[in-house]
Amino acid sequence: MCQYQTLFHDDNTGYVVRCSSCNKIQIGYGNLMLNLGTGDFKDFCKWLQQVYAENEGIQNKTVRNIVIPTPCEGMKLLLSIRELKTFNSMLEKADTELQSLLLLQLFESR
Fold first, then answer.
1. Which of 38, 32, 37 is nearest to 15 (CA)?
2. Which of 36, 32, 66, 70 is nearest to 52 (CA)?
3. Whole-structure pTM over 0.85, yes or no?
4. Domain residues of the chain, as ranges?
5. Domain 4-108 belongs to what topology?
6. 21-66, pLDDT tens digit by residue?
7. In what helix (H) or strand (E) does residue 9 lie, and over which residues does it extend?
8. What is the DSSP string of 13-63?
9. Mean pLDDT within 7-11
10. pLDDT for the residue numbered 109
11. Quick one: 72 exposed, middle or buried, by C-beta within 10 A (0-12, 13-18, 19+)?
């Protein structure tokens, strides 16, 4: 049974939680929910940072014109540069918390 550790939570932005039993990570952002393994979470974070860097110069920050493909055929995410920046920030904070938890686990196992 899953036991969640909160890596990030903000009522206005979303959340990132990790199951301490199976190590799956759940991301909630707007009306989007993703479930990823730890490795996939890292890859997803890096990839979104790259997408943000490629689109950072967009003038209109609120127009949803960034299309992000998903593994599901015919389904894509549509975000504005402002939303993508917020999403990236949320994931960075969650990743920092995850790294801290993993580091603490190293010391607890001794």
1. 32
2. 66
3. yes
4. 4-108
5. Transcriptional Co-activator pc4; Chain A (2.30.31)
6. 888 999 999 999 999 999 999 999 999 999 999 998 899 999 999 9
7. strand 4-10
8. TEEEEEETTT--EEEEETTEEEEE-HHHHHHHHHHHHHHHHHHTT-S-TTS
9. 96
10. 63
11. exposed
